[in-house]
Specification:
542 residues; alpha/beta; TIM Barrel; 3 domains; eight-stranded parallel sheet; two-stranded antiparallel ribbon; 18 helices; globular; EC 3.2.1.39; membrane; signal; disulfide bond; hydrolase
Length: 542
């Protein structure tokens, strides 16, 4: 978005035809007020400024000021929208014991999240979002892409079941803004298994939305992974898309441009830090002490700008330099790896929010930050794949039970997030190693427990990596015990397990107690059943 002050100067030079001193003074004072709006973060102050313009006595007395009045109000609105920005959050449900969706929606509302991105279209989640006025991105799992690519009827059925039915309830419905076709289907580790189906699936969903008279309100997007683009030299100006997806990206971007959809992409300074020796922690965290990176006459002071402009260059290389960009995922994990802590995550999110709200943009897109940004993620998820690392289960701003990990600044100053309320836990019981038994098989039992539970906190650099044997065995036992709803036989381990009511947590190593929820595993099971039913239906109608 262009700088509001520049637009204002142009507007007033165009409309300032009056030679009357009174008119000129009014125009100048109004312009000055709008320029001051660039520093406003207070909604009340914003409304007062608009009122000052609308009810200005001089404005109403002089007809020639109507142009200035209209222009100024529009600029005030544009400036405030620019300052407010669009920050949402990803809500994943890959948890063994997820918080009930109604409680999660209350968590979103309590913390003023106005947008949420989902990885699927779970009915329980969408029903909970009904009437919330939260902007929603519904997702289509990768497993459905083949069927949607081959069958328009399947796409129409999906749109009817997952979009139309939730929009048709008026004010009590769901404010669906995007349909995300696939979940990073171009991720390099997936190979080419989804590549042939993405464009066709997106086109069929677009057609289905058009036939449902929804194409103007619901946009089709395809979330792209952080490894879809690169620069071997490390210079953003040399950015390009991977060779194996370059042709597909041209097709995708042509499709998105035709239908007025933005480009959804993951930006991951944490993964850049993990994978590149040239990225320092300070550079990833927006620290002023970071050594800058230079690219010709452009200077990069943080990893976000470096990655973002690498994408901008890649887009420009194939002729799409002006497409809107939405950062679909960006965050910092708090456990499971070195540099994955709550303190570092707080520093990163604080730096990110300040950078976005400043509106400075990047060297290749000055004054033009991403149109929307979605933080990864709302909650920790103990069932997420850890193929990329144990940290994958710890992206949440909140722990699995909805407790805030750190403070955050959404333009209102650094403040505490509001925790989930009325959370119901299983009894305060834990499973630990019985030291009075023969412990020769304890390590083997712990490894077996971890294969069916979440032991990522024990990973090198994790919050429990410093507890020694046999404490780490107890952690493994308890993780298995909690995930199996504290059933007595889940704390057996050949007689090595012992149930206790004494909390074995040590320092920062928390031995969790799981949630008491009727939603345990139900969201994942329901998602799997829906996927299988859809695949069968797609085969039948093909």
């Amino acid at each position: 978005m262009p700088n509001p002050t520049i637009i204002l100067d142009l507007s007033f030079s165009s409309f300032s035809t009056s030679t009357r001193p009174e008119a000129t003074r009014w125009q100048i004072s109004t312009r000055s007020m709008v320029e001051d709006m660039a520093d406003l973060d207070d909604e009340v102050t914003f409304v007062r400024c608009v009122a000052m313009v609308l009810w200005s006595p001089k404005a109403s007395r002089m007809p020639q000021n109507r142009w200035h009045l209209a222009t100024t109000v529009l600029l005030l609105l544009a400036t405030y929208a620019h300052k407010a920005g669009g920050v949402g959050v990803n809500w994943g449900t890959a948890a063994s014991h997820p918080l009930p969706p109604p409680e999660v929606v209350e968590l979103l509302k309590s913390n003023n999240f106005s947008k949420v991105k989902l990885l699927d279209a779970d009915p329980l989640v969408l029903e909970a979002l009904s009437g919330s006025n939260i902007g929603v991105t519904v997702g289509i799992p990768n497993a459905l892409l083949r069927g949607l690519n081959s069958s328009l009827r399947a796409a129409q059925s999906w749109v009817h079941d997952n979009v139309t039915r939730y929009l048709s309830s008026g004010h009590s419905g769901v404010r669906i803004e995007y349909v995300a076709v696939g979940d990073e289907p171009f991720l390099q580790s997936y190979g080419e298994q989804f590549h042939p189906f993405v464009i066709g699936a997106a086109a069929n969903i677009q057609t289905a939305l058009r036939r449902a008279n929804l194409e103007s309100t619901v946009k089709v997007v395809v979330p792209c992974s952080f490894d879809a683009f690169l620069s071997e030299s490390g210079l953003p100006s040399k950015g390009h898309f991977r060779a194996d997806i370059n042709r597909t990206m041209i097709q995708l971007l042509t499709f998105l441009t035709k239908h007025g959809s933005p480009f959804f992409v993951t930006i991951s300074p944490f993964l850049s830090l993990q994978q590149s020796k040239n990225i320092s922690l300070d550079f990833a965290l927006f620290k002023e002490t970071a050594k800058p990176h230079n690219d010709s006459r452009r200077t990069y002071k943080n990893c976000f700008d470096l990655s973002y402009d690498t994408l901008v260059a890649a887009l420009s290389t194939i002729g799409f330099s002006r497409i809107d960009i939405v950062v679909a995922q960006i965050g910092w994990p708090t456990d499971g790896a070195a540099n994955a802590t709550s303190a570092i995550a707080e520093t990163f999110i604080k730096g990110l929010m300040e950078h976005l709200s400043s509106g400075v943009g990047t060297p290749l897109r000055p004054k033009n930050p991403p149109s929307e940004t979605y933080i990864l993620s709302l909650l920790d998820e103990d069932q997420r794949s850890i193929a990329a690392g144990s940290f994958e289960r710890h992206w949440g701003l909140f722990t699995f039970d909805g407790q805030a990990k750190y403070r955050i600044d959404f333009g209102e100053g650094l403040r505490n997030l509001v925790n989930a309320q009325n959370v119901e836990y299983l009894p305060m019981k834990w499973c630990v190693l019985n030291n009075n038994k023969d412990l020769s098989n304890a390590t083997a039992s712990a490894l077996e427990a971890c294969s069916a539970a979440d032991c990522t906190a024990l990973s090198p650099g994790g919050s429990c990596s410093n507890i020694s044997w046999p404490g780490n065995v107890s952690y493994a036992f308890n993780s298995y015990y909690q995930q199996h709803d504290q059933s007595a036989d889940s704390c057996d381990f050949g007689g090595l397990g012992l149930i206790t009511t004494v909390d074995p947590s040590v320092d920062k190593c928390r031995f969790p107690v799981e949630l008491r929820t009727s939603y345990s595993r139900s969201l994942q099971k329901a998602s799997l059943v829906r996927t299988m039913m859809f695949l069968v239906a797609a085969i039948l109608v093909t």
